[in-house]
Amino acid sequence: MAGTKRTPEEFSIDPATQEMLLRAEELGLETAFSRADAMKACPIGSDNLCCKNCSMGPCRIVKEGQTGVCGATADTIQARNFIRMVAAGAAAHSDHGRDMAFTLKEVANGETQGYVLRDVAKLRYIASKYAIPIEGRSPSEIANDLADLYIAQFGQQEGQVALISRAPKKRQEVWESLGITPRGVDREVVECLHRTHIGDDQDAEHILDHALQTALADGWGGSLIATDISDILFGSPAPILGEVNLGVLSEDQVNVVVHGHEPTLSNMIVAASQAPDILEYAKKAGAKGVNISGICCTANEVLMRQGIPAAGNFLQQELAILTGAVEAMVVDVQCIMQALVGIAENFHTEVITTSKKVKIKGARHIEFDEKKALDIAKDILRTAIDNYKNRGAVQIPDHRSPLIPGFSQEYINYSLGGSYRSSFRPLNDAVMSGRIRGLVGIVGCNNPREQHDYFHVKVAEELLKNDVLLVETGCSSIASAKAGLLVGEAGLDQVGPGLREVCEAIGMPPVLHMGSCVDNSRILTVLAQVVEEGGLGEDISQIPVVGLAPEWMSEKAISIATYVVASGVYTIMSGTAPIDSNPKVPDSMIVPELLSAGWEKKVGGKLEFINDVDTIVSKTLEHIDKKRAELGLPAYDPEAFGKSGDSRMLEIETLPVVDRREAIYG
Ligand code: NFS
User: Fold this and answer.
1) Nearest C-alpha to atom 6 of ligand 1 is from which residue?
2) What pTM did the predictor assign?
3) Could you give the domains of the chain?
4) Which atom number of ligand 1 is nearest to the Cα of residue 557?
5) What is residue 2's predicted lDDT score, i.e. its pLDDT?
């Protein structure tokens, strides 16, 4: 593909994206899509067969028997490069979690402006998991203790990350027996960098063991901390009606797009946008109001809690600016393209950086501080409103889709059993009976080297037809939402008969939106609860479940995939494999083998890179059926279902009244 020029339809399946790509072409502007065509990927780097960890190189391994100057073999180089990706991804998620923990501490001590402990029930529940006393204590006292415990997880040197105790017992034993139970989040990341320095760990398998340990510190550590605290501060998500795609931008309001990952700033901007003084200020500027929307995982954070519309996923960040309708794009950390500033120069859009950790040359910096959160959020909004008068020509694609996000573990538990008997029993039963064939999580990014959204949507559609219940997060969930799969009734005509019955009985869409990328930790705790509920084995590795990251591009995605595998789940990524075999370098076969068969033997989950929708779907279903058989569950049979639920009722209603009784009772 590289070097060739694709059409807008080849770039993306999303009509709003196609329209904006045409506009970019008319205006002669570059986007990540066109840059991906122009930038031929380095073939040695694609296989990860180069090493620049010291200055004796950089070394490139292109033929049999060749090593780096230090003697490093292809497999050592590939394993080192892989684990460095895990370290960077785990660091990004976990540093986000650390900031959340510090915010919790400040909120507990009354040092912030505008934040409250919104979900006290979750605070008490989480605190009780670690034996933090809760009876007779104020929420602030409990939150203070929980914040201290969570902050301590980062610098902990020995023992195990406390949140590991939330994994099934059997899983913990697997980690213990392999010596990969994470000790402290920072320690594992630092050790990755130490081991991969010149002259350290030079055994691919041994290096990759530590990749598992580090990723576990992310999934069952940093990311889970971020999710827990976001819920405590901003509320555990519950279903809410939302909308996605660039059509959510407004023609006659000030558009502020929040982009990045941390919910602390975006939630405050949402709150500030509703303040009377800000509305007044916007009206004086000639606008009808302030319209907040999100891009990337920040979008998911405010969408699932407050119903704030999402303007798009990762590859739509530049396109939002191309509409000419965005007064300010407010960014914090992660997945923010430097190209935003360049494209914004052609419009009136202000790109505003807000994190202490992230500045972009040419962007305005308004640093966020939780202690003055509301004041700063208002400052940012006033800057955007002041910019409204500079708006030029506007072209907002008329595409927006409804969705129902907000399926947290707490909500799924409640929806399945009600307030008094909340439980996962109906879910486990549905899997055991075969109404639901299995569970699949589809997560992760977009990648302009692939057709935008195509893999996410196509794989989802195929699995739904096969009665697979989907949980999604991040850019994947936004892709599915744009395709109409995240609404209850509308999505159901596309799903298999058994899954349809379950969705109708419970009143849920066939694709459950679980949040942002750090919320992949919710998928882990959901799987732990499935095990705890009983009937589907004693360990996550026994559940008929598969993890997919169809359009991945970031190091965070590699960390996620690794902790999902380490938790016992078969995981498939597609697009570019970060570690690939070169037939001319036999040693380059070793690491892909270690990640798949090697890890399966150790942890019960394996990581594979497959670049074809049909193969992804068939391997996913094959794995689910294999796990069903191992559990002694009935083989999946779509013929067995579809004779109850709403479709059956509709059929019965067409019968003469006298025949209905017989139809129902036989
Ligand atoms: Ni996660 Fe990918 Fe970024 Fe979110 Fe989207 S690109 S690894 S899904 S926004 S983090």
Assistant:
1) 445
2) 0.95
3) 8-60 (no CATH), 74-234 (1.20.1270.30), 242-390 (3.40.50.2030), 410-575+611-630 (3.40.50.2030)
4) 7
5) 43
